[in-house]
């Protein structure tokens, strides 16, 4: 179609322009200001939820990199490594780092060049940047280093008002996480990370980013995307950890989930009604689809709703007992650790239980740009008693 042809030509122009200029890492301020929106546009096109746009951009970037692709990877990683060992002061220096990180994130999406980035020390450099910026509490928003976003007329046409909120107040940290998440799909990258003595330090940094306040939703989504490579899924919270202590405890439990092997789990109807009501079985024969049951649970007062559910739920012999325990843990806490062998079974259970966040994380899909963090929300379970959440 005409629109598709136009998109193709725009993608080609942007790809060649950005990659070509990266070869010399320019020091011209005007040139940098021109490159920033181009590098951002390229990244957003590659990360587009539209498969046609993402695929065409991917192919155009591969074509643009053909002459000196490996050399560009070396330059990108080397420029970031130099920055890592020096102080980044002033909007101009910060802007150069952001452009390099956006470009690295775009190139990290390309399988042929992931190995080059890893061989050049990309994992080590990105880990150092992430640790430095996660603990420094820096405030480096896009609007503070790119002048045209301060013009309300210009920014209205090309910049979303909520962009800084999703990317956070430190976009260097955001784009470093973005690059790290893309490389984390590579098995060699994971092997190198796990073999280094810094792996525990990196995991602690990532978990701190998930638990910490003040980081953008995008940073936290990319952290969650990375942690799935280490068998961790979700967004941990202090409140979720407190609720976790009540799982499988007799006190106040009013529901028993009978597992296929004869073991059972003690649970609370009000928590499951708030988090995954499809696990509950009505005392009377249910009519209608799962969709209608979800709608009923959403519209009705939970205190009244819980009286309509059976106190005992017998699970099918096809249900994996260990995965069921993990599913319940996620329902109570919003976070769970899962062995690789159980991912497939747990994904099926999560989808059937309508735990959308867990299903999405288990699928391994890239975070949707602009999406909010999925908190462990029990507000619907507390409102009927008049308690604010």
UniProtKB/TrEMBL annotation:
Pathway: Protein modification; protein ubiquitination
PROSITE patterns: BTB
Pfam short name (any one): BTB
Signal peptide: none
Domain BTB intervals: 253-340
Alphabetical list of InterPro entries matching this protein: At1g04390-like (IPR044953), BTB/POZ_dom (IPR000210), SKP1/BTB/POZ_sf (IPR011333)
Protein name (Swiss-Prot/TrEMBL): BTB domain-containing protein
């Amino acid at each position: 179609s005409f629109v598709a042809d136009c998109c193709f030509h725009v993608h080609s122009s942007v790809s060649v322009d950005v990659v070509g200029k990266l070869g010399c890492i320019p020091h011209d301020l005007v040139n940098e200001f021109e490159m920033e929106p181009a590098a951002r546009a390229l990244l957003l096109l590659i990360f587009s939820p539209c498969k046609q746009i993402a695929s065409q951009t991917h192919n155009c970037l591969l074509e643009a990199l053909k002459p000196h692709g490996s050399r560009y990877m070396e330059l990108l990683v080397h420029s970031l490594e130099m920055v890592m060992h020096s102080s980044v002061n002033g909007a101009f220096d910060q802007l150069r780092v952001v452009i390099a990180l956006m470009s690295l994130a775009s190139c990290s999406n390309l399988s042929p060049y992931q190995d080059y980035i890893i061989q050049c020390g990309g994992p080590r450099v990105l880990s150092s940047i992430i640790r430095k910026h996660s603990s420094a509490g820096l405030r480096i928003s896009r609007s503070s280093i790119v002048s045209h976003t301060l013009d309300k007329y210009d920014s209205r046409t090309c910049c979303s008002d909520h962009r800084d909120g999703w990317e956070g107040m430190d976009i260097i940290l955001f784009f470093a996480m973005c690059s790290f998440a893309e490389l984390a799909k590579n098995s060699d990258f994971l092997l190198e990370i796990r073999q280094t003595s810094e792996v525990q330090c990196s995991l602690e940094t990532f978990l701190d980013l998930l638990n910490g306040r003040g980081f953008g939703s995008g940073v936290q989504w990319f952290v969650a995307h990375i942690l799935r490579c280490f068998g961790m899924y979700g967004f941990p919270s202090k409140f979720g950890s407190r609720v976790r202590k009540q799982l499988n405890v007799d006190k106040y439990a009013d529901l028993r989930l009978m597992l296929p092997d004869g073991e059972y789990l003690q649970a609370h109807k009000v928590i499951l009604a708030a988090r995954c009501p499809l696990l509950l079985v009505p005392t009377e024969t249910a009519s209608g689809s799962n969709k209608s049951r979800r709608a009923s649970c959403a519209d009705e007062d939970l205190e009244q709703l819980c009286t309509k559910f059976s106190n005992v739920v017998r699970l099918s012999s096809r249900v994996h007992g260990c995965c069921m325990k993990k599913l319940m843990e996620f329902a109570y806490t919003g976070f769970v650790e899962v062995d690789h062998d159980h991912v497939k079974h747990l994904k099926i259970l999560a989808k059937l239980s309508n735990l959308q966040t867990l299903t999405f994380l288990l699928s391994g899909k890239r975070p949707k740009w602009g999406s909010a963090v999925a908190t462990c929300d029990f507000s619907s379970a507390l409102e009927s008693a008049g308690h604010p959440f």
